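pls design
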């Protein structure tokens, strides 16, 4: 597939067509609001309602009970920028031009989700982390309250990649609270007759893994359930090199479980609790029944898988499987757990249809509205696709070489991640419910039989009995993105 430039996309997108066609029983002058919540680096299995033994997520679980939990939701990329741009452009990373965090330009306003709702007369707002749009684009919104992360999260050369600690600022000064109150103010301040589109972008549970002591103390390292042991080399040599360079091969059980308990405390504090505040604000202002709420993450976290934490330029489910929860009373099902495969590029067309608008031409995603209503399901051959890039990690970048010269030196994870974020080589993935194929320009192919397992366990690309599956998925990847 050829790269779609921003100019071509804008020219082809038919934005802001006819007035929204509302569902029966709703006033024509009351189109639904949209509350779009993005969290950073949250795995798709980190919910108590999914049976996760470490998670405490009452508000996420409530939203799933009142709406639809997409059990097979996937990010369009394994790191922030590619996925966030895919959410708002409705395009895959190789189409919008950012295959890594260090690749491509930020989005313009035109031809994106923000312009789509602005042209339909929505009051528009953005609160929290950006990593998506050029500053000039956000200046066109009714409200833009942008933050990245609190200064107390700064690293130094002696901080290990799995660093965790208690938050030592007052909670009311921390961004989970500040961003939420800013979002609530936007919800409350607008005229009741004007619909709004609000994106609330939280930093958590992105590392460093931190939460206030009143949350972290509720989680015990001894209670953390570690995933089954699978060595990185069982997947790929590139993952093994990365793991050793980050020093993950030297982590013991206590290192991992201590990091895990902070990660899950951070989800409760920085994701679940703020979501509850937003839902209560909608209820208090009489907007709960006329607001489409969607929550997702830009990517996941290894968090114990393969003895690792954090992220990297890899197309494994640990990093791509993310929460995707919808709540829209009267417009979608209630209490449905949808099994269909969906990903970030589907958000734009789905929001367009759920709010009664026309789905623009030129988007790469598909609307999931019928699936959310329980009216459609996918067959076993339905596939999702991901495009990304990676840089070479020099052979000398190993733990012994990573000791800092002084406390102000760059931390180990930065010195390892930076070269791997260079868009030197391309990688792509096709995934069905049963199989996953990953192709890399400089590495051997990777084929995994998923079959309901929580993660990839062994690369079977060389197994002759799976040759037909591999060939079939190779053809599909070639048709999707030809190198």
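designed seq:
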């Amino acid at each position: 597939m050829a790269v779609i430039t921003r100019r071509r996309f804008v020219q082809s997108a038919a934005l802001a067509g006819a007035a929204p066609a509302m569902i029966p029983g709703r006033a024509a002058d009351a189109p639904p609001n949209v509350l779009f919540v993005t969290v950073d680096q949250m795995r798709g299995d980190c919910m108590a309602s999914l049976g996760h033994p470490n998670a405490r997520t009452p508000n996420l679980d409530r939203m799933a009970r009142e709406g639809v939990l997409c059990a097979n939701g996937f990010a369009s990329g394994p790191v922030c920028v590619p996925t966030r741009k895919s959410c708002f452009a409705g395009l895959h990373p190789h189409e919008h031009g950012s295959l890594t965090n260090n690749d491509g330009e930020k989005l313009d306003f035109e031809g994106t989700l923000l312009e789509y709702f602005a042209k339909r007369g929505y009051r528009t707002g953005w609160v929290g982390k950006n990593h998506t749009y050029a500053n000039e684009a956000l200046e066109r919104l009714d409200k833009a309250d942008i933050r990245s992360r609190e200064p107390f999260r700064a690293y130094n050369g002696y901080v290990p990649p799995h660093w965790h600690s208690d938050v030592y600022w007052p909670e009311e000064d921390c961004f989970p609270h500040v961003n939420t109150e800013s979002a609530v103010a936007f919800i409350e301040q607008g005229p009741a007759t004007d619909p709004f589109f609000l994106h609330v972008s939280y930093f958590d549970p992105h590392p460093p893994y931190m939460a206030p002591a009143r949350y972290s103390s509720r989680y015990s390292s001894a209670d953390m359930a570690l995933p089954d042991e699978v060595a990185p080399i069982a997947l790929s040599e590139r993952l093994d090199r990365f793991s050793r360079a980050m020093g993950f091969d030297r982590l013991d059980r206590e290192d991992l479980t201590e990091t895990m308990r902070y990660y899950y405390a951070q989800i409760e504090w920085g994701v679940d609790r703020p979501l509850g505040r937003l839902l209560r604000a909608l209820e208090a202002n009489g907007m709960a029944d006329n607001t489409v709420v969607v929550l997702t993450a830009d990517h996941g976290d290894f968090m114990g898988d393969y003895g690792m934490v954090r992220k990297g330029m890899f197309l494994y489910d640990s990093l791509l499987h993310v929460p995707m929860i919808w709540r829209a009373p009267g417009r979608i099902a209630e209490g449905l757990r949808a099994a269909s495969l969906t990903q970030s590029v589907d958000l734009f067309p789905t929001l367009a249809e759920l709010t009664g608008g026309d789905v623009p031409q030129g988007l790469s995603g598909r609307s999931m509205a019928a699936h959310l209503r329980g009216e459609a399901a996918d067959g076993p051959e339905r596939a999702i696709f991901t495009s990304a890039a990676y840089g070479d990690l020099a052979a000398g970048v190993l733990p012994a070489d990573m000791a800092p010269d002084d406390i102000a030196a760059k931390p180990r994870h930065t010195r390892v991640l930076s070269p791997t974020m260079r868009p030197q080589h391309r990688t792509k993935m096709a995934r069905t419910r049963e199989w996953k194929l990953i192709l890399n320009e400089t590495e051997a192919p990777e084929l995994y039989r998923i079959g309901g397992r929580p993660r990839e366990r062994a690369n079977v690309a060389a197994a002759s009995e799976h040759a037909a599956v591999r060939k079939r998925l190779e053809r599909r990847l070639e048709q999707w993105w030809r190198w």
